[in-house]
């Protein structure tokens, strides 16, 4: 006979006062505080894994939360003369586009942004490589580049107006000065990651300067180069809009000033939304170019 069957366990023995002993939960049942904690931990890990697989869901949630807070604040907390709820802004985009001069202003600003960005990238690549690949140039010229980069360029906007006038040329030039320096700095930093043995090996095999640039230098500076392009694009956007805000008779900056002075926040935020869409489109172009040129990695 099995002796364990007749031996009372600790939970079966009566207590001194005649009250039965409390029954402890079995570890296998997962009950109690420990089981609840493990369940919460598994749920958190599941959510984290889902968000890691679908980062777009997290981005959508953040945007939705911002819009919700904006809607509540605009409707019940802030004076409607200063801010308009996003629901009203999105429904008024057609009215903004129908405003006389706004479509032409969008085309002009996009043209200025595109031209200034292309010029910034072209000059930034040439100057960045010239400084980054030569130790003497890097030690002598890089401090000057950083000094000019740190200057508040809005203080010299009148000089651009004197040289280029109040047309599109001054906005493009001012945008170039804002976008060129991030590109130069990141390209110089990217050249520092290039191993000298790679250049020496390529030269020993008879590679020309173009082949060195195409097959050795450029592939190793792709991450820093495209990071500089994104920063440069933001700088170009800032420079063009600042020039349009201060001195302009056309462009998005001009209508931004006009809507602000007339206390029309709905059209103002609608114009800003169109400007944000323009910036997103340019950023997507840069992102796709980065993916294309980074396939070898």
Task: Tag the structure with descriptive keywords.
297 residues; mainly alpha; MetI-like fold; 2 domains; 14 helices; flat
Quick recap of the structure?
With 297 residues, this protein is mostly helical. Helices cover 76% and strands 0% of the residues. α12 packs antiparallel against α14.
Strand content: under 5%
Largest sheet: none
Overall average residue pLDDT: 78
Tell me the name of the CATH homologous superfamily of the largest domain.
Answer: MetI-like
Q: Count every helix, treating DSSP H or I runs of 4 or more residues as helices.
A: 14
How far the N terminus sits from the C terminus, by CA atoms, comes to 71 Å
Number of strands: 0
Query: What is the string of SSEs from the N terminus onward?
Result: HHHHHHHHHHHHHH
Classified by CATH, the class of the largest domain is Mainly Alpha
Broad shape: flat
Radius of gyration: 31 Å
Which CATH architecture of the largest domain would you pick? Answer: Orthogonal Bundle
What structural class do you assign from the helix and strand content? mainly alpha
Q: Outline the low-pLDDT stretches.
A: 1-14
CATH topology of the largest domain: MetI-like fold
What does this structure look like?
This protein is mainly α. The chain is built from 14 helices and no strands. It has helices spanning 3-6, 32-53, 55-77, 86-91, 93-98, 102-132, 135-149, 157-164, 168-192, 196-204, 209-220, 222-246, 252-261, 265-293. It is flat, with a radius of gyration of 31 Å.
């Amino acid at each position: 006979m099995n002796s364990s069957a007749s031996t009372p366990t600790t939970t079966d023995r009566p207590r001194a006062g005649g009250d039965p002993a409390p029954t402890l939960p079995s570890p296998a049942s997962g009950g109690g505080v420990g089981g609840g904690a493990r369940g919460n931990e598994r749920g958190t890990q599941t959510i984290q894994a889902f968000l890691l697989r679908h980062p777009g869901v997290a981005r959508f949630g953040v945007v939705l939360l911002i819009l919700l807070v904006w809607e509540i604040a605009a409707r019940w907390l802030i004076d409607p003369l200063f801010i308009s709820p996003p629901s009203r802004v999105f429904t008024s985009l057609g009215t903004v586009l129908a405003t006389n001069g706004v479509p032409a202003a969008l085309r002009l600003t996009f043209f200025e942004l595109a031209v200034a960005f292309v010029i910034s990238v072209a000059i930034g690549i040439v100057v960045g490589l010239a400084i980054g690949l030569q130790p003497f140039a890097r030690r002598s010229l890089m401090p000057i580049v950083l000094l000019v980069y740190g200057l508040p360029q809005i203080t010299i906007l009148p000089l651009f107006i004197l040289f280029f006038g109040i047309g599109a040329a001054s906005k493009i030039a001012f945008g170039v000065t804002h976008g060129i320096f991030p590109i130069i700095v990141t390209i110089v930093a990217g050249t520092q990651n290039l191993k000298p043995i790679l250049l020496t090996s390529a030269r020993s095999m008879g590679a020309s300067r173009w082949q060195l640039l195409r097959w050795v230098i450029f592939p190793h500076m792709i991450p820093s180069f495209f990071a500089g392009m994104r920063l440069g694009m933001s700088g170009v956007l800032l420079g063009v809009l600042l020039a349009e805000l201060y001195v302009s008779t056309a462009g998005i900056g001009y209508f931004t000033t006009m809507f602000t002075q007339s206390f029309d926040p709905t059209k103002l935020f609608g114009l800003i939304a169109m400007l944000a869409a323009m910036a997103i489109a340019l950023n997507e172009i840069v992102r796709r170019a980065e993916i294309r040129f980074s396939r070898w990695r």
